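Data availability (excerpt). The following record was deposited with the supplementary files.
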Amino acid sequence: MDAVLLIIRLVLFAILAVAGIGKLLDREGAEKAVKAFGIPEPFVKTFAILTPIAELIFASCFLFVGFSWPGAAGALLLMVTFIGGMLIQIVKGEAPDCHCFGQIHSEPVGPKSLIRNILIAILPIVLLLNGREFQGYPLGESDAAILSNSILAFLVVAAFVTATYVWRLSKENSALKRQLDLLEMLETGASIIERDEAGDPTDSLPIGAPFPDFSLPDTAGKRITFDHLMADPLPKLFLFVGPTCRPCKAMLDEFADWRREFEGRVRMVFVSRGSAAENIERFGAELADGMLLQKNMEFAGQLHIKWTPAALFVGSDGNIASHPAVGDMAIRDLVGKLRSEDLTKPGYHIKNSQKRGRIKIGEPIPDFEATDLKGSPISRKTFIGKPTLTFFLSTTCGYCSEVIDQIRKWENSPERNGTNAIIFSEGDVETHKAYGLSTPIVIDDGYRLSGNLGMFSVPSGVLIDENGVIATESALGGPMIWSLIGRKPE
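Predicted structure:
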């Protein structure tokens, strides 16, 4: 048991020492993280410096048997504080960077970081339960040996932190070099193209909507459909490029690296435009192998992607699982988020746009009781058994009248395929009755009910699955609402 306790002490020493040094190397990032966790502005700098100092002090305690027990108490206090802060952020639906290891490693607060901290917190609990007198073997048989081994332990951690820091700087320098290469290409005389017609990059099909089917030739002339791609159970990362796209050329090495890195986890699907010959010349035979070709941007246009380079993640279930990442920096950020996650878990998605409301995919709808215009009861049970397309409308919304007309046509359409529908709306009862719809309408003035389902504007909608669980993000506007069930409005 003494050997086990010594190992626990050394593990805690390494974790806290790396975390403390990492934060001290990135004071600006530490202050940003502290502020994001809700610390008042006057205390941000103080907390940002005291936290890593406390981590280093408690780390040092684990090198000496006599100080291990109070070190464990301090480490547990730190971990409980971190866990509490993370829980508060998760409940609030926010995900600031934890900045747990400063420059060495940082990630958004979420289940993964929370579980990691809980597991770490178990280690000091084990030491505390063993009492002050039973903290495992010392680091040496004499005071001199203990001191020298302690110094050696710090040197090992410092070497690890230094190596990691240099590696990160190398990656940042590589990214800077690619940016300089791009600027150099722009300085060769190419004019900057204004893209006023491209629209907002975040104006895209909703997360959770089925990816639209297509039929496109690849560079070998073989026609590929989405069903062909779905025969491969891996999730897909669609990368939209073009033979005349200068930023795309600057990312060639990264594209090749990602294809190798994600082999067996994510299938990279490159979509370009133009002829096979010019794409092979631009991207090389290896990268262009299997590349899908559109004439212009007609397929990308279905996904509301009008810029290159751009990327879109699609889950293994064939549903859209991210917002478009437009531009080299956004694509790198999206790829970074794919590296450490379980991409095959049901409903996995990435929110990579700040212009959307909170996404509630995977959350069960709350219990409620209401009645529709005909007096029929509407509750959570109404949503059980079949998928339900849920609309959020208003009699004062001009665009909602178009959606009403589309619902009227859809009610008798064979394309309905057993999908239920419910309308939550606000306004005059008689006006709603005059619509003449068979779809149940619940008057929800102030959107007290529908707001809990993810609605944030009108006309909008979400798809609730047959288990009463929210399956998509809120879709704004008629075309986006119908995309939730893979249908185009008439």
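Summary of structural features: The longest strand covers residues 267-273.
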